[in-house]
Design brief:
alpha/beta, TIM Barrel, 8-stranded parallel beta sheet
């Protein structure tokens, strides 16, 4: 069990995160590196400080290298990613990154939720992932490559729409939700299933990565389908949590009750590792209120649920 994207940018944030990880007896942490913020002549000193502090605390690091780059290396971009050009020095950036921190991270991945956020096509993502994987294999052959986070859409569509696997949310009528997801979004779902299947079957990776949110009743079926496409490679869930900000109450006690259900579902999955999202509430992410702490760093009821569940595992 670990935490995905906790605050680590400043020394104060790292101290907070390390203290909580120690209290919960967790050792796995996931956070991101972004070439766009480093520039064409990257200085990895800030990243080195983060990793030094986290490693000194005994934490195992999964580094997510965002599918982003400086404008000079991009053919086009959106809010989450860019299409890195064929002649951009991606390999040089990755070689320098691995030289700076490769010995102190345990796993690495390219992109986050590429099936939903990547600006280019599936083939263009796979081409970039191939450049990434080729460089990592050459420069750090012992480093675990995790296929960049995949949203639950394809797996949910397969379980909920194609296989008629049911699920419930407390007090919520899902009739319109099923109509919208399974009927209105049918074409999108079919494309996403095909794209995820293609990448899982053709990419170079050691571990497959799926994100699971909200619909915990679908997780078992979703992971079974997903794992069937990985050709025997292990599955990690590098983000799980909820509740849905569009469908469910924004109430910390409701969140705590749902978290108990998420943890029970995660414990039953045939996966090697899971990272909860998130540690502290924010204003930027979709699941912005899924933290174990509020934005002022105060414990929410969810923290006790999380702590108590882990103590029983």
């Amino acid at each position: 069990m670990g935490i995905s994207f906790p605050p680590v940018a400043t020394g104060e944030q790292r101290d907070f995160t390390i203290d909580v990880m120690d209290k919960l007896d967790l050792t796995h942490i996931r956070f991101a590196e972004n070439w766009n913020r480093r520039g064409m002549a990257p200085d990895f000193t800030p990243l080195r400080r983060r990793i030094d502090d986290l490693r000194a605390a005994g934490l195992s690091i999964l580094l997510t290298v965002q599918s982003d780059a400086p404008d000079a290396a991009c053919a086009r971009r959106n809010a989450h990613s860019c299409l890195i050009t064929a002649d951009a020095p991606l390999e040089a950036y990755l070689t320098a990154l691995v030289a700076a921190v490769g010995n102190d991270i345990d796993a690495i991945q390219f992109g986050n939720e590429w099936d939903n956020q990547f600006v280019g096509s599936t083939q263009e993502f796979l081409a970039l992932h191939t450049r990434f994987a080729d460089t990592i294999r050459r420069e750090a052959p012992d480093l675990t490559i995790v296929l960049g986070g995949i949203t639950g859409r394809a797996a949910y569509a397969h379980a909920y729409c194609q296989n008629a696997q049911s699920f419930t949310l407390p007090g919520i009528d899902l009739t319109e939700i099923k109509q919208g997801f399974c009927v209105t979004d049918a074409d999108r779902n079919a494309r996403t299933i095909a794209e995820v299947t293609y990448v899982l079957q053709n990419a170079d990776y050691d571990v497959a990565d799926i994100h699971l949110y909200d619909a915990d009743g679908l997780w078992q079926s979703a992971v079974a389908w997903f794992a069937g496409l990985t050709v025997g490679r292990p599955v990690w869930v590098t983000e799980f949590g909820g509740p849905s900000p569009e469908l469910e109450p924004d109430d910390p006690y409701y969140q705590a009750a749902r978290l108990a259900a998420y943890l029970a579902a995660i414990r039953q999955l045939p996966i090697a590792r899971a990272y909860y999202f998130k540690l502290i509430d924010d204003n930027g992410s979709y699941h912005s209120r899924s933290g174990l702490f509020d934005r002022r760093g105060r414990e929410k009821p969810a923290f006790s649920v999380f702590e108590d569940a882990l103590s029983e595992w």
